[in-house]
Amino acid sequence: MASALLLSGLLFFAQPAVASDCGSLPAPGLDWSECTKKSLMLSSSELEGANLFGTDFSMTDLSGSNLTAANLEKAHLVRAWLAGARAEKANFSRVEAYRSSFVNIVATGASFASAELQRADFSGAQLTGANFEKAELGRAHFKGAVLTGTRFSLANLSRADLTGAKFEGPLVFDQAFLYLTRIEGLDLSASTGLEQAQVDLACGDDKTRLPSGLTTPSSWPCGSD
Questions:
Q1: Which ranges does the record mark as transmembrane (predicted)?
Q2: The dihedral sign for the CA sequence 208, 211, 216, 221
Q3: Number of other residues whose CB lies within 10 A of the CB of residue 200
Q4: How far is the C-alpha of 216 from the C-alpha of 42, rounded, in Å?
Q5: What are the helix (H) ranges across 101-181?
């Protein structure tokens, strides 16, 4: 009897966790964690508060979708379209989103910490209070994006384009890598964490404004790249 009870207990604890409902239609609060949703047309989907942890959305169209407060941590978003989506306070930390479109996304207060965002397009995005700490942003585009209070601590912004970005107050650049980062025309005088060594690597012009104590390089290291 004791052996039977022990075996029963072992079988109980060995049962797998409840699986995600990968076959369900888009709905607020659903669980698609670690599901495969590649190359699908899911534009204008209602996914507010959804659990999308590790979900594979590679090459999927999520444009215009509601991702408010959704958890997309470690999701695969390679070449995905999120243009015009709503993603306030969404969690994009550690996503893979190479060459993805976040054009005009509303991602106020969202986290992109440690995300892989090389060549991602954030043109016109609303990113007030967003967190890009330790994110890989090589060649990413932020033209016309709203970056008020956005944090780029320890981020790799090499060859990223911030020209035309809009913001009030400081941007946070402590220990960010700014190799050939385009900052032409930006008033960075209130920025925090910005150091001379970072400025010397970046691409500015005579309209670029720097924090007190930093000087404009005698020549900016900017080519036509």
A1: none
A2: negative
A3: 15
A4: 47
A5: none
